[in-house]
Amino acid sequence: MDPAIIIPVSMFASIFGVFYLFFSTRNRERLALIEKGESAEIFKARLDRASPIWKVVLLNLGLLLIFMGISFLVGNALETNTVIPDEIAYLAPMFFLSGISLLLGFYLTKKLKL
């Protein structure tokens, strides 16, 4: 069998397996609640408590892109003004500043009125 076909087939099989397990387990849980006579209201999202996830995604994505742009500027400054190799001069600020942006996004998300 060609090794190039094994990777897409195994990727499809694993994604299918994850979704199958998720939906079959969810169905079993709900059927067990119905058999016991319990209310299945815990699975319904309340509109008053539903958090607007798009605000969190946009905040974190915006911060990440801003800090990635800043990291390119810092990397360029490190490359031209120091003897640090090019790969390290660009990669180190990217990882450092993207981590800072995600932490800042986490703290700003906690302050949002969700």
Topology:
Layout: H1 3-36, H2 53-81, H3 86-111
Helix pairs in contact: 2-3
InterPro entries: DUF6249 (IPR046216)
Protein name: DUF6249 domain-containing protein
Domain DUF6249: 6-110
Overall pLDDT level: 85
Low-confidence stretches: none
* Sheet having the most strands: none
Termini, distance in Å?
52 Å
**Overall structural domain count:** 2
**Count of helices?**
3
H/E topology pattern:
HHH
Q: Give the tally of β-strands.
A: 0
Oligomer: single chain
Gyration radius from CA atoms, angstroms = 23 Å
What percent strand?
Answer: under 5%
Range of helix content: over 70%
Q: Structural class per helix/strand content?
A: mainly alpha
How does the overall form come out from the CA principal axes? flat
Characterization of the model:
The chain has 114 residues and is mostly helical. The chain has 2 domains: 3-43, no CATH class; 53-111. The protein is 78% helix and 0% strand. The chain has 3 helices and no strands. It has helices at 3-36, 53-81, 86-111. Helix 2 runs antiparallel to helix 3 (86-111). The model has no long low-confidence stretch (mean pLDDT 85).
